[in-house]
Amino acid sequence: MTPNLRPTRRGYAVLAVGAGALAAGAVFGPRTLDAVVLPIAVALVAAVVQVWRAPEPSIERRLPPAAESGTTGVVELTLDAPESYPATVRDRLPADVRGEPGDNGAATAGDGAVTAGSGTTTAGDGAATAGSGTTTAGDREAVIEATVGGDAVTYDVTPKRRGEHEIGPASVVATDVLGLVERTREVDARDALVAFPRVRSLSGAVRADLRAASRSRSAAGRDEFDGLREYVRGDALRDVHWKSSAKRDGLVVREFTADADPEHVTVAAGTVTGETRVGVERPEDDGGGTGDGSARTNDDGAADAMAEAAASVCLSLVRDGAGVTLTTPSGSVEAAAGRRRELLDHLAVVEGGPVPRESADVEIVAGADSTTVRFDGRERDFETLVDGGDVVEGRATRSVAADGGVTGSVAADGGATGPVADPEAAASVEHREAPDEHGSGAVSR
């Protein structure tokens, strides 16, 4: 903790008046000196004694719980000391975190100054230049008027990107009652604010197709036949019992005893290296940097896109009752059905890199211009999987055969296009329910 004692602006003004009074006393006599200089000297000495005797404070910082990036939370500061005294607290924030006025009138600044307690911000040297397309990272502070030894004070923070963001250290500025002298103490209290990647909702049809990925992978290990049931979207075509379906109004599929085992899906995610990623506009970003004084590199943007897609896919699976093993360039993590925290903790700090070579049911690749999701032999743009996503050029998927050729697919209007490798798959088109607005009615082997 390093103390720093100096006059305030008001103190400098009083010193200037005192210097002028000394000059006047030299010309007009000691009466002028007694009337002005002595009261100024007494006030300054009293101010120095008051702030010097202020005890060293300690700070306890309580952060909001981890949440998605862009979510505003409340930081609570408790300042403790043997004696109470008023002070201004400046809590240092990283460039990717925006501080906002709270109940105590906190404000966020760049390298310039703010009016503490006013809830206003004066941009300093670290402020972003609007419309320039680039930003310069600068120190940011949440400035709060507080009473050391009094009640806790709060301010709002909004992390603009996923990750672990270090908040602190804090500066506590004690001022005398006249506002002439201030003493700054640096309190080395640091805490990590965790922000998860954004999680987007996938359409119901896509969720069913993802669950089918685990069934098709485990088909080779199935045991004996167990019974028949009605077809539901996402069931593998190989399980359709055509003879029984011909006698009924709808399709029926065969069930095997191994299907009673819990579903488990493996997901691999990574980024394409050696490419320049065009800045992707986010809801919290105007397209140039992060909009808060920090610059995001191309690799960071690709890693963020990968984390967002992986979080959306994996959380959709665990919510639907499937276990997930996620492998990324930063390692591997497993989550049982209904568990999400392990996945989010991993994706909050995951770094970009090539997709792990292990085979997986679902593969996510963040490229130069888009993020693709591959599963069950199909490749889709991530945006088309999102609930309410747009279909690109009338199609949502393209089916890739094992030899690299493209197999038949169903266009958004329900018609089959391209060569179809499986006669049974072609015959089943008329039985399949109409594809939804996302065009997820693709047929592939």
From TrEMBL:
<keyword id="KW-1133">Transmembrane helix</keyword>
<feature type="compositionally biased region" description="Low complexity">
    <location>
        <begin position="105"/>
        <end position="135"/>
    </location>
</feature>
<feature type="region of interest" description="Disordered">
    <location>
        <begin position="404"/>
        <end position="445"/>
    </location>
</feature>
<protein>
    <submittedName>
        <fullName>Uncharacterized conserved protein, DUF58 family, contains vWF domain</fullName>
    </submittedName>
</protein>
<feature type="region of interest" description="Disordered">
    <location>
        <begin position="272"/>
        <end position="301"/>
    </location>
</feature>
<feature type="region of interest" description="Disordered">
    <location>
        <begin position="92"/>
        <end position="135"/>
    </location>
</feature>
<feature type="transmembrane region" description="Helical">
    <location>
        <begin position="12"/>
        <end position="29"/>
    </location>
</feature>
<feature type="compositionally biased region" description="Basic and acidic residues">
    <location>
        <begin position="92"/>
        <end position="101"/>
    </location>
</feature>
<keyword id="KW-0472">Membrane</keyword>
<keyword id="KW-0812">Transmembrane</keyword>
<feature type="compositionally biased region" description="Basic and acidic residues">
    <location>
        <begin position="429"/>
        <end position="439"/>
    </location>
</feature>
